[in-house]
Amino acid sequence: MKKRDFFKAYTTTSFVRGHKIVWAPKLKKWLYVDTKETYENDRKCIKCGKMPTPEGHDACLGELPGIEFACCGHGITKGYRRER
């Protein structure tokens, strides 16, 4: 089956650290588009090439004082943050 045909039925997409993922309803799991592996383990950010911190923060940002959550954008979107 061609890659395009495989993902044609999946319309819900998202990104994890810059990697595109799709929802597979029959499997009830997210799949990485490039390898069709299930999204169970984190991958390195495609922008900085680093794994998230043990706390789950973007490694290039680390823990930011006074910030509830933040994202570097991973080379896909503009980064953002939310103050406490």
Outline of the structure:
This protein has one helix at 3-8; strands at residues 13-16, 19-24, 29-32, 67-71, 80-83.
Task: Report on the architecture of this protein.
The protein is mainly β and 84 residues long. It folds into 2 domains: 1-41, no CATH class; 44-84, no CATH class. The protein is 7% helix and 27% strand. It has 1 helix and 5 strands; from the N terminus they run H-E-E-E-E-E. A hairpin with an 8-residue loop joins strand 4 and strand 5. The longest helix is centred in the first third of the chain and has 6 residues, at 3-8. The radius of gyration is 15 Å and the shape is elongated. The relative contact order is 0.15.
Distance between the termini: 48 Å
Largest sheet: 3 strands, antiparallel
- Class from secondary-structure proportions: mainly beta
Overall 3D shape? elongated
The number of distinct β-strands equals: 5
User: What's the alpha carbon Rg, rounded to whole Å?
Assistant: 15 Å
Q: How do the strands of the widest beta sheet line up side by side?
A: 1-2-3
Count of helix runs: 1
Kindly give the count of domains. 2
In sequence order, what are the helices and strands, one letter per element?
Answer: HEEEEE
> Considering DSSP H and I runs of 4 or more, what fraction of the residues is helical?
under 10%
Given as residue ranges, the uncertain stretches (5+ residues, pLDDT < 50) are none
The percentage of residues in β strands lies in 25-35%
Mean pLDDT: 85
Task: Summarize this structure as a short list of keywords or feature phrases.
84 residues; mainly beta; two-stranded antiparallel ribbon; 5 strands; elongated
